[in-house]
Amino acid sequence: MFTSRAEFRLLLRPDNADERLCALGRSVGLLDDESYTAFQAKRERIEREVAKLKSHRVNPGSVAPEVSASIGGDIPGKGASGWELLRRKEVTLDTIPGYTADPMLAPEERERIETECKYEGYIVRQARLVEKTRKSEDKKFPLNFDFHATPGLSMEVREKLARVRPLNLGQASRISGVTPAALTILHLYLEKLTLERAKQRPQ
Fold first, then answer.
1. CATH 1.10.150.570 domain position(s) in the chain
2. Sign of the dihedral defined by the CA atoms of residues 31, 32, 35, 36, in that order
3. Nearest Cα to 113, choosing from 55, 42, 37?
């Protein structure tokens, strides 16, 4: 699979593959004790560092003007946590004023923390979308649903859907070439049809 075609590629990064898959691998007997222990130690180091960043406070009066300039601007009047400052593109774990990262952190662990912090808003938004998509997978297409008549879909997607005739959105999502955008269009169109039918029912 191309990374660009992955439905939720922001959550499917190489740097968090162990977080996503190690527990599963362990549960089916694919991960030995040594490897799983190493994964747990790595996860604990990352969690400790994130907690430390969130508890570290930087007050505006404690930062020299030249330091403020190097980290993307002044500290807010109410102060900021290390985690909040790390969101700035100019800031790394090594440039947060008054902060010393755990020297035991491996380079990939430092990168993972910075990535999770800087893209936190997008990651949270995509996680919500994953949950919303999961809940909508069981939404069924009406009998004799005309995929060719669905507005907004490309001709390629319409032809694939008409050929396979999925029973619900979950099945449609697993058809090669049916993009997340197409699934959103289908979901909205089904919602529209549901509302129109509800209005047509006798009161």
1. 137-200
2. positive
3. 42
The CATH homologous superfamily to which domain 137-200 belongs is GidA associated domain, C-terminal subdomain (1.10.150.570)
d(CA 110, CA 96) in angstroms, rounded, equals 13
pLDDT, tens digit only, all 203 positions of the chain: 555 556 677 888 889 999 999 999 999 999 999 999 999 999 999 999 999 999 999 999 899 999 999 999 999 999 999 999 999 999 999 999 999 999 999 999 999 999 999 999 999 998 887 787 777 778 899 988 999 999 999 999 999 999 999 999 989 988 988 988 898 899 889 888 888 887 777 76
CB-CB contact of 161 with 178 (8 Å): yes
pTM: 0.72
Tell me the CATH number for domain 3-129. Answer: 1.10.10.1800
Q: Which of 87, 80, 85 is nearest to 59 (CA)?
A: 80
Residues of the chain with CATH 1.10.10.1800: 3-129
The rounded distance, in Å, linking the Cα atoms of 50 and 44 is 10
